[in-house]
Write a structure and sequence with these properties.
Layout (H helix, E strand, L loop, with lengths): L14 E5 L4 H17 L5 E6 L4 H4 L7 E4 L7 H11 L3 E4 L4 H9 L4 E5 L10 E3 L9 H9 L17 H10 L7 E5 L12 H15 L2 E4 L6 H8 L7 E3 L6 H9 L3 E5 L2 H8 L4 E5 L4 H4 L7 E4 L13 H8 L3 H9 L7
Parallel strand pairs: 1-2, 1-4, 2-3, 4-5, 5-6, 7-8, 7-10, 8-9, 10-11, 11-12
Helix pairs in contact: 1-5, 1-10, 3-4, 6-9, 7-13
Length: 345
Amino acid sequence: MTGYDASALNNPRVRLLVVGPNWLGDGIMAMPALQVLRDRLHPEASISLAVKPGQADLWKMHAAPDRVLSLGGRNSDIRANVQQLRREGFTHALIIPHSFRSALSPALARIPCRRGTAGQLRRLLVSDGVDLRPCAQRHQQWEVATILLPAPLPRQLPPPRLHPPETDREQARTWMTDLPAPRLGLIPGAARGPSKRWPGERFLAVARAWIEHTGGGVTWLGTPEDVPLCRELSRDLPAPHSLLLAGKTRLTGFAAVLEALDAVVANDSGGMHLAAATGTPVVGIFGLTDPAKTGPLHERAVGMQHAEQVSRSIARDSEAARTALAAISPEEVIERVLAIPPSNP
């Protein structure tokens, strides 16, 4: 990319557009590199992050972007997106997603320097194509770092860190007033379907063991789609040791609840990554997806897996994935989660 080097980042006139990922977990795995980019930029340089409307609340909890722009994802939104980007006068665009659509609006807006992967037709839309093959065996955060950061890359990246609004933190404390400590969060859902869902009865076994061993409480978390499952799993647990919060929070409130917990057990999901980004220890349950590539970025996070082969791309309902998930016993998970030092002693 012409002008995109270490010296260019020291220019206060840099107006940088970062096109962010479309999924919650991918967004969080992009944060370490963006944090480093923010530190390298001239203090007066500007970072605007463009994401789909559903991802905007996530980035409002992150310190790196100066502004968060919501761009529509439909074909009918392209003209408005382009007009908005042209008005901003961006000098550089760093495009994290690999889709054609994600690179189209920056190209049509005539942003001079556009950096991103250049596969297939995207080579017509970017001015600096990025080769991610050297990152093939590394965690996904390094793919993002290769796009966002000039060489040489740092030896390490910082963990992602979110800061939920204080109003949501107060609400989280109110919800959990009567829930005994220590508190465990359980996220039994996953948007990708059965291939990423550990059997629900095993989450229930973990909940019972936590209550028995610690005298503490558990809270059930997830999206509105997860409410029936969480309600069913929590139904027979003793009060006041179980709290159902699935479907009751927006993203910022979800993050605030996770931040207030002592530990979390979750499927490989956006909720798992969200918990790690709040600083709460996590035990992540993996089927065929590889925790070495997409595991939670937290020094006290643990990815558990019993699979002979791993893949980044699996069907929503894969028999092999369900078999790998079923091979993880509740006793193993209970042992791991009880061994985590409390984050909120």
